[in-house]
Design brief:
Layout lengths: L1 E5 L5 H7 L4 E5 L2 H9 L5 E3 L5 H9 L7 E8 L2 E6 L9 H17 L5 E5 L11 H17 L4 E5 L1 H6 L4 E3 L3 H14 L3 E8 L5 E3 L6 H18 L2
Parallel strand pairs: 1-2, 1-3, 3-10, 5-8, 6-7, 6-8
Antiparallel strand pairs: 4-5, 4-9, 9-10
Helix pairs in contact: 1-8, 2-3
């Protein structure tokens, strides 16, 4: 297996690449990384600390449909997907329904039964106090109603969702999802494996510019694992 990885300002990716038992091709170009992936010169790619915006713009030229990112996190030996994590992503009901669809497909390929939690940000009894809060509460209830006959899904607060071992956690919007990710990973004890890209055939793992050596290593290993799984 060959995995491409982006070499930007954060050089931790170099040490991470040297510490895995498969070939990693480092590149300082977003265009080259995207080209290698789309032309199947590599089996997967990891962003490293290159520009996510530039890479996704190249990848999206090949896909009419949207590409969604969901961070694969681990807390207390429990792995789960958190989405949306891009500040401009999934700001309407249809996008969140698509994340549920693609996220459950991803987990199913790993042999994991989906257990979904929708975070509204507060408890339903606060309905009527603030229009923005009302919107998130009503949307979360709507999401649960639309998919409850297909999947195990509940409306929770974040701490309840993690304690209940939910493996797909939907934040109210991309901004709050990004803040949750940064709080759990950079201030808490949560491990990040990077964000899997849902809605595309190729394997692209997005990573934070601020990731540690171990964080980049986990992302590289995830990309390699998914590539092997794809070819079995």
């Amino acid at each position: 297996m060959k995995i491409a990885a982006g070499l930007g300002k954060n050089k931790n990716i170099v040490e991470a690449a040297a510490d895995v038992d498969f070939e990693v091709i480092l590149t300082e170009s977003e265009e080259e990384l995207s080209s290698m992936l789309l032309n199947k010169n590599v089996d997967g790619a990891v962003r490293g600390s290159l520009s996510s915006t530039k890479i996704l713009s190249y990848l999206r030229k090949e896909y009419i449909q949207k590409i969604y990112r969901a961070s694969l996190l681990e807390l207390n030996n429990h792995k789960f997907l958190l989405a949306p994590v891009g500040v401009y992503e999934a700001n309407d009901l249809q996008d969140k329904l698509k994340i549920i669809e693609l996220g459950t497909e991803f987990l199913s390929k790993l042999g994991i039964e989906p257990k979904i939690d929708v975070i509204s940000g507060t408890r339903p009894e606060t309905l009527g106090i603030n229009p923005k809060v009302d919107y998130f509460i009503e949307e979360s209830v709507d999401l649960v109603e639309k998919v409850k006959n297909k999947f195990f899904i509940k409306e929770y607060l974040l701490d309840d969702a993690i304690q209940d071992n939910a493996n797909i956690i939907l934040a109210p919007d991309g901004i709050s999802g990004n803040l949750i990710f940064r709080s759990l990973v950079f201030l808490g004890m949560t491990k990040s494996y990077g964000a899997v890209s849902l809605g595309m055939d190729e394997i692209f793992i997005d990573t934070s510019r601020s990731q540690t050596v171990e964080g980049y290593k986990r992302a590289l290993e995830l990309s390699n694992y998914l590539a092997k799984l794809k070819h079995t």
